[in-house]
């Protein structure tokens, strides 16, 4: 399958990988890595959960000790909120430019950890950007999230029962927040830690199959 590494600026300002669709009926996926990942990390996951879908995978533009992220944090679980908002808008702008460049429909985001957090905020700030989301180990991205309307946007949240990073209360609060904004949220807590398991892959694949056409 063809894959391109692109660093075009300013419109496609994120270094990213793009794999074109081989199944024209499949919704494109936006793959958003966790801390320390890059634009290649979630490509295998994308191929497994949505065979034939176009894959768009940007690299986070923030470096934390040499590890890419999508926004700055001040400590574990403590985010630089002004930076979070700015970076979410930057990502939404990139997605819009990539849709034009590659001829894509609105993608379904698949984000892990830091990538899941920024995907959640993109949905809240710029709800027209994404057709849905799979949020793997997400947290509430802002202490005072913006008002927004997610008209029936499908969202799958997958939390880990033994996750040492994301408190159960925080994940539940995010599910409630997205639901209150109109999202069609499914929140599942799996017998897992912060890392992904085969149960995550199965749940994500089933969800994408239901909403992705």
TrEMBL record:
Keywords carried by this UniProt record: Hydrolase
Gene Ontology molecular function: hydrolase activity
SUPFAM superfamilies, alphabetized: alpha/beta-Hydrolases (SSF53474)
InterPro entries, per the entry: AB_hydrolase_fold, LYPA1-2/EST-like, PLipase/COase/thioEstase
Pfam families according to UniProt: Abhydrolase_2
TM spans (from-to): none
Annotated Phospholipase/carboxylesterase/thioesterase domain residues: 53-209
Family: Belongs to the AB hydrolase superfamily. AB hydrolase 2 family.
PANTHER family, A to Z: LYSOPHOSPHOLIPASE-LIKE PROTEIN 1, LYSOPHOSPHOLIPASE-RELATED
Name recorded for this polypeptide: Phospholipase/Carboxylesterase
Native organism: Xanthobacter autotrophicus (strain ATCC BAA-1158 / Py2)
